[in-house]
Amino acid sequence: MFLRREPVPFAFVSEADRFRSNVTPPPRERLGRTQLAARTLVGLTVVAGLAGSLLFGMPALQPTKVPEKSQQSEASQGR
Q1: d(C-alpha 39, C-alpha 33), whole Å
Q2: In angstroms, what CA-CA distances link 35 with 6, 32, 45?
Q3: Contact residues for 58 (Cβ-Cβ < 8 A; gap 6+)
Q4: What are the angstrom distances between the C-alpha of 74 and each of 42, 59, 69, 70, 77?
Q5: Of all residues in the chain, what percent carry a pLDDT higher than 70?
Q6: What keywords are assigned to this protein (predicted)?
Q7: What pLDDT sits at residue 70?
């Protein structure tokens, strides 16, 4: 299977994939103090939430020892 390029009637169609714009976008605006503080607080809240869930969730993931005695209700002891 050989690929042949067919002639294109319009030159701009064949050159569309190589087009580069000569217009530069405007420079990005710097963040204000309030925006920077807000983003920092959101980031710290997310990190603290992940750390807290890991801290409180780890004991639940630890394997527990099987009790030696099975638990029975008081009603079954009187029989």
Answers
A1: 10
A2: 54, 5, 15
A3: none
A4: 52, 30, 14, 13, 5
A5: 56
A6: Membrane, Transmembrane, Transmembrane helix
A7: 63
Determine if the pTM surpasses 0.90.
no
CA distance linking residue 52 with residue 40, whole number of Å: 18
Contact (CB, 8 A) for 40 and 32: no
Tell me how far apart the alpha carbons of residues 10 and 16 are, in angstroms, rounded to a whole number. 10
Give pLDDT, residue 11. 59
Q: What is the pLDDT of residue 17?
A: 57
Q: What is the spatial distance between Cα 52 and Cα 61, in angstroms, rounded to a whole number?
A: 15
